[in-house]
Fold this sequence. Notes:
Number of domains: 1
Shape: globular
Organism: Lasiosphaeria ovina
InterPro entries: Kinase-like_dom_sf, Prot_kinase_dom
Number of helices: 1
Domain Protein kinase: 1-50
Protein name: Protein kinase domain-containing protein
Strand content: 15-25%
Structural class: alpha+beta
GO molecular function: ATP binding; protein kinase activity
Order of helices and strands: HEE
Amino acid sequence: DIGVERKLLEKIVVRSLRAIHYNRVVHKNISLPNILFNSEVNRVMIIDFE
């Protein structure tokens, strides 16, 4: 189900952002092109911190 998958991805992205903020880093351009997802391991990578 697309809705279930979307909610799972949203949770993973939020968890990633919390980890980034916990380390006192702020990403100033969170957008879809800056969020990479590896479906093999269900891992999100947030890129472009400039």
